């Protein structure tokens, strides 16, 4: 028979660890899922109403799995959906998701352990700027070697260099000579902002294992956890090296498309072609496809830069200099976007920012996330600071000012940088506004936008909950439980000062009033649109001149 997995442990309560653990717990109600982290503050918040990460749908999944839920009617969860099985109900469920800092104990109890710690780029030493910093992975594997059951299965969920499984196996053998632990690779492909949706409806699940009977048995045990909600045809078993490399290649190929179209945006600005028209024209060829062809300030976020760096380092260490250079060029073009943008801002303001105020709209690396890591704004601000502006004003509808300040720490202390929670105050008296994040609320509303309300993706994403609370295993234990209406509660009070900024003067569900902003700007009223967010003709009506990336004047 197959291996029986009753207890799993996720190490690393971050953007990947918690959403993955929570969805696996949701879909396997009889599995006990423990998430550990060494960061006590983070664990305390996962145990509170104030979750440390904003992801659409995550608070609902965490609440159901962490706190358990009473039996409920499906209609109450998602009233807009067609009634399933004549309005079938969701059985009650006991809590099966636990957050704790007790690493050793949780590892000791687990049949399967997922490594979900961060794997950033090394900042010093051998391979700095490219190689992966394996410190966290190494320390976790040592803890596993010291505490795990002899036949526990160790799963690499973090993105790691190709052949890490060998390194892991070597550490295990050194510190636990007689253990029979199997190492699997199961990379994660979710995107921030849509994590829960991506996990509920994955394109594929890749499970890499060693090519032995034990390896394949371990892989099958992991596949079983997914098969409670993912079609078997989407679960692909590979060799462990292929799986590790496939994750880096997936990110490199996605980022490569962005750099490809961004390289064309530079040509457009001097020829008069419009990069968005070019992208649309080429993307209509189904062999090319339309996704990931949006030109802009380049890719930010915690993964693309570091994963391509890791691929470049791998190629270099194999002596494949041309291959390394090929992928490195994706990073070169990516950085070029921000330097070209900053240079254009300075030139259009007559080559000097002295005495001027520059407002930056958006700090998150993309819309619908409050993650401030690898913000595209930082490179731009660094370039502008050299010109000694009077003020750089930053506003983001979701990122907390404290996180923004922390991310800016690498720039040193600059009294001229201010973070605002009201966009109108942030933009008042500015000589130029830079649109850095593609937030819908920054868009000039189109006639299709009802009144002034932003179409929030969160609303439609809740369709993902059609299958959300329905356990797929037999729920016979719960028969006879009194049926009650399941009433979703907000995870925390609105405008909770613990979780988010209280949005004084701005509701992120509404469009910015550009006319109001224009009225308080200094001349020339310039908006530099780095994300194809505003409509130049609409803006001209309110007296603003738009400089758009990838389009000539
Ligand atoms: P994160 O920084 O949000 O979370 C990592 C967590 O690990 C932190 O809470 C940290 O405290 C904890 N940690 C570090 N060392 C530890 C230790 N020794 N013991 C216990 N806990 C420890 O990182 P993330 O964004 O979730 O990324 C994790 C991994 O997943 C990375 O390898 C990343 O490349 C990969 N990944 C991320 C995404 C994404 O969208 N963020 C998507 C796919 C893959
Ligand atoms: C990315 C991948 O999309 C995920 O599949 C992967 O799992 C993840 O990295 C990871 O390994 O961490 P994420 O970084 O969350 O996810 O966000 P993306 O939506 O990919 O956007 C990355 C950056 O590229 C953003 O700054 C975005 O604005 C930019 N982008 C994206 C463009 O400039 N143009 C595009 O056409 C698409």
UniProtKB/TrEMBL annotation:
<feature type="domain" description="UDP-glucose/GDP-mannose dehydrogenase C-terminal">
    <location>
        <begin position="359"/>
        <end position="459"/>
    </location>
</feature>
<feature type="binding site">
    <location>
        <position position="159"/>
    </location>
    <ligand>
        <name>NAD(+)</name>
    </ligand>
</feature>
<dbReference type="InterPro" id="IPR008927">
    <property type="entry name" value="6-PGluconate_DH-like_C_sf"/>
</dbReference>
<feature type="binding site">
    <location>
        <position position="366"/>
    </location>
    <ligand>
        <name>substrate</name>
    </ligand>
</feature>
<dbReference type="GO" id="GO:0005634">
    <property type="term" value="C:nucleus"/>
</dbReference>
<dbReference type="InterPro" id="IPR036291">
    <property type="entry name" value="NAD(P)-bd_dom_sf"/>
</dbReference>
<dbReference type="InterPro" id="IPR014027">
    <property type="entry name" value="UDP-Glc/GDP-Man_DH_C"/>
</dbReference>
<dbReference type="GO" id="GO:0006065">
    <property type="term" value="P:UDP-glucuronate biosynthetic process"/>
</dbReference>
<dbReference type="InterPro" id="IPR001732">
    <property type="entry name" value="UDP-Glc/GDP-Man_DH_N"/>
</dbReference>
<dbReference type="Pfam" id="PF00984">
    <property type="entry name" value="UDPG_MGDP_dh"/>
</dbReference>
<feature type="binding site">
    <location>
        <position position="306"/>
    </location>
    <ligand>
        <name>NAD(+)</name>
    </ligand>
</feature>
<feature type="binding site">
    <location>
        <position position="300"/>
    </location>
    <ligand>
        <name>substrate</name>
    </ligand>
</feature>
<feature type="binding site">
    <location>
        <position position="119"/>
    </location>
    <ligand>
        <name>NAD(+)</name>
    </ligand>
</feature>
<protein>
    <recommendedName>
        <fullName>UDP-glucose 6-dehydrogenase</fullName>
        <ecNumber>1.1.1.22</ecNumber>
    </recommendedName>
</protein>
<feature type="binding site">
    <location>
        <position position="192"/>
    </location>
    <ligand>
        <name>NAD(+)</name>
    </ligand>
</feature>
<feature type="binding site">
    <location>
        <position position="37"/>
    </location>
    <ligand>
        <name>NAD(+)</name>
    </ligand>
</feature>
<comment type="similarity">
    <text>Belongs to the UDP-glucose/GDP-mannose dehydrogenase family.</text>
</comment>
<dbReference type="InterPro" id="IPR017476">
    <property type="entry name" value="UDP-Glc/GDP-Man"/>
</dbReference>
<dbReference type="InterPro" id="IPR028356">
    <property type="entry name" value="UDPglc_DH_euk"/>
</dbReference>
<dbReference type="GO" id="GO:0051287">
    <property type="term" value="F:NAD binding"/>
</dbReference>
<dbReference type="GO" id="GO:0006024">
    <property type="term" value="P:glycosaminoglycan biosynthetic process"/>
</dbReference>
<dbReference type="GO" id="GO:0000271">
    <property type="term" value="P:polysaccharide biosynthetic process"/>
</dbReference>
<keyword id="KW-0520">NAD</keyword>
<comment type="pathway">
    <text>Nucleotide-sugar biosynthesis; UDP-alpha-D-glucuronate biosynthesis; UDP-alpha-D-glucuronate from UDP-alpha-D-glucose: step 1/1.</text>
</comment>
<feature type="binding site">
    <location>
        <position position="373"/>
    </location>
    <ligand>
        <name>NAD(+)</name>
    </ligand>
</feature>
<feature type="binding site">
    <location>
        <begin position="292"/>
        <end position="296"/>
    </location>
    <ligand>
        <name>substrate</name>
    </ligand>
</feature>
<dbReference type="InterPro" id="IPR036220">
    <property type="entry name" value="UDP-Glc/GDP-Man_DH_C_sf"/>
</dbReference>
<feature type="binding site">
    <location>
        <position position="247"/>
    </location>
    <ligand>
        <name>substrate</name>
    </ligand>
</feature>
<dbReference type="InterPro" id="IPR014026">
    <property type="entry name" value="UDP-Glc/GDP-Man_DH_dimer"/>
</dbReference>
<dbReference type="Pfam" id="PF03720">
    <property type="entry name" value="UDPG_MGDP_dh_C"/>
</dbReference>
<dbReference type="InterPro" id="IPR028357">
    <property type="entry name" value="UDPglc_DH_bac"/>
</dbReference>
<dbReference type="GO" id="GO:0003979">
    <property type="term" value="F:UDP-glucose 6-dehydrogenase activity"/>
</dbReference>
<feature type="active site" description="Nucleophile">
    <location>
        <position position="303"/>
    </location>
</feature>
<feature type="binding site">
    <location>
        <begin position="189"/>
        <end position="192"/>
    </location>
    <ligand>
        <name>substrate</name>
    </ligand>
</feature>
<feature type="binding site">
    <location>
        <position position="42"/>
    </location>
    <ligand>
        <name>NAD(+)</name>
    </ligand>
</feature>
<keyword id="KW-0560">Oxidoreductase</keyword>
<dbReference type="Pfam" id="PF03721">
    <property type="entry name" value="UDPG_MGDP_dh_N"/>
</dbReference>
